[in-house]
Amino acid sequence: MILFLAARPVVSPAPGPSPTLGHSPRLGHARAGGPPCAGGPPGAAGPRPPVRPAPRRRGRPGLLAPYRRIFAVPGTRAFTAANLTARLPMGMLSVSAVLMIAGARGSYALAGAVTATGLAATALVGPWTARLVDRHGQARIAVPATALAVLGSLSLLLCVRHGAPDWTLFASYAATATTPNTGGMSRARWAHLFRDDPAARHTANSFEQAADELCFMLGPVLATLLCTALFPEAGTAVAAALLLTGVLLFAAQRRTEPPVAARAVGGTPAGDRAPRPPSLRRSGLAPLLLTFLCTGAIFGSLEVVTVAYADDHGVRSAAGGLLALQAAGSGAAGLLYGLLRPAARATHRFALCVGAMAALMLLPALAAATGSPAVLAAALLAAGMATAPTMVTGMGLVQSRTPDSRLNEGLTLAVTALLGGIAAGSAAGGWAVEHLAGPGSGYLVPAAAAALALAAALLTRHRR
Description:
The chain has helices at 2-7, 65-71, 76-87, 93-105, 108-136, 138-161, 166-174, 182-193, 198-229, 234-251, 285-312, 319-339, 346-360, 362-368, 373-383, 387-400, 407-435, 444-463. It is mainly alpha-helical. Keywords: Membrane, Transmembrane, Transmembrane helix.
């Protein structure tokens, strides 16, 4: 998709002052519709007019016209390509760590415990890292945070390589929790650039969700290939290199980095009479995070149950392909969803999307009862088609319900809820596989998680 868009001719933007001219060492985020950096400290970026995407060419618009329109804005292709480089390791690191530790120590239990520790540490540290990004800017925080995370990955690699005690593996992988939310930073840039254009923001969020699905579809495949074809530590080494390179290139794109909201003494945003309430206490955000928690449980349980089902039917090597089909269905639906111009209220659309996801998630349970992996593959492809629209609409609601100066924190809280759900779903899926009547019955867990997500979404709608 990126290569195709890069090959398209760029239409020059409308005459007028460029929205990307000038930058400051203190640039950060502002939510769509939020105020630009006005009245900030000396040397801070001044007010910037909203971006006006390039006018469309006359004639019949193409199918991908909405995507060409957002990528016609100067600087968007550069930061997107850099962010994709930094985001790909998110689907590689955990798989690489499991393969590396299990191969060297001969224990999948140890490998799983180490990665679970890193997941828990990320859930705790991630929101604090995002808050620092909001306060001080992407470039000033993301680069050192990424450097610390890369050092943790390299420390894990060396400890495994040289037979260090087990506790060093836990400590090293916990250090990777400072990895910034690269997807959230990219969404924050789109939200700032198109703060006065909801249709463009919808298209950009749809593209970002499709990019997430692509990275989590290709990442494990690339990690497995590197660890098996080269050497066990290759996946971790390449993932760390890609992460550092991508974040450095992303941070260098200062022209599209949103400005930091000016803050008075004591940390209160300038112009406010009282400190803003924490994002989690915003009206309607907590039930929304509950929906993300249940959605994460769908992902976590689906992965474990699918691997167990494939192993039970003697096609364990096809487990990755089955999961890739679910991600492919989600990514394709996300791109198509970005071409639409939804007219209904976001809360109504979110409830409809979660309802569709709950209905489609019944298909794998029905397909597993047939005992045919081919039927299950088709069911997983169909089940994934409601995931991306749900995530796109949900992330849009998070943006609208997060304070102006805390957008990265709000987006990272959503990711943290997803991670917590993935951990809980993995445990529930593993229990179901062991205690229910066969691995196929385990697909009742993601179906139940989808039903809980629907209940939480309805709660979100009524609370708002």
